[in-house]
Amino acid sequence: MNISPLRQEFILHFGEMGSRWGINRTVGQVYALLFLADDPLCADDIVAALGFSRSNVSMALKELQSWNLVRLRHRPDDRRDFFATPDDLWEIVRTLVAERRKREIDPTLTKLRELAMTQPAEGDLAARARIDELRAVIEQMTHFHDELNRLETERLVALLNMGARLNRMIEGAGRLIPFRKVKE
What number is the average pLDDT over the span 35-41? Predict the structure, then answer.
């Protein structure tokens, strides 16, 4: 399988970024190839395109399936499994956020809630206060995420666009009306 220079550069970059996101290079490159593919690909197609071993491709596909980032597809009269990414970019973004939350934020929040239930030693009152503050911020952010996640994609996009306009408006108002601190 011949990959164009544009696709090759994207695939290589995604592999590099994968390691920064907590996945290995192979997984990132397999995902990028599937993301750009015109049609679903089987493992043999991926091996041919990227030059990875069959076992590395299989492991990468299992990892991507565990993240719900690829979908299994079947073709009539073909016993092989084919894989594709969702067409809807917002579905991909929502899946990534949900999976990162499930794997990173939720366990941390669980631990912070457990710590909130323990009685701190006298010397740990300041540490406990910081832990409680962090827990409250994370709970607020997860609640905000839940609210955003309930929105239909069109409303979410409109909200994001409105947020950018609101930010520009606030910045503009700050230049027109100097902020004065109220004396207490």
Answer: 96
What global pTM score does this model have? 0.76
Residue type, 68: N
Residue ranges per structural domain of the chain: 5-84, 89-176
3-state helix, strand, coil in the chain (%, to 5): 70, 10, 20
Pairing of strands 41-42, 78-84: antiparallel
Amino acid in position 29: Q
Q: Where are the beta strands (DSSP E) in the chain?
A: 41-42, 71-75, 78-84
Q: What is the mean pLDDT of residues 120-133?
A: 90
146-163 pLDDT per residue, tens = 998 999 999 988 888 888
CATH number for the domain whose boundaries are 5-84: 1.10.10.10
Q: What is the mean pLDDT of the chain?
A: 90
CA distance 76 to 74: 7
What are the φ/ψ torsions at residue 118 (nearest 5 degrees)? -90, 155
CB atoms within 10 A of CB 115: 16
Residue 39 tokens, joined: 């049609």
- 56: how many CB neighbours lie within 10 A of its CB? 18
**In the numeric block, which tokens belong to residue 10?**
């994207």
Q: Does 176 or 22 have the greater pLDDT score? A: 22
Contacts of 44 (CB under 8 A, 6+ apart): 54, 80
- Scanning 117-152, the segments in alpha helix (DSSP H) are 125-150
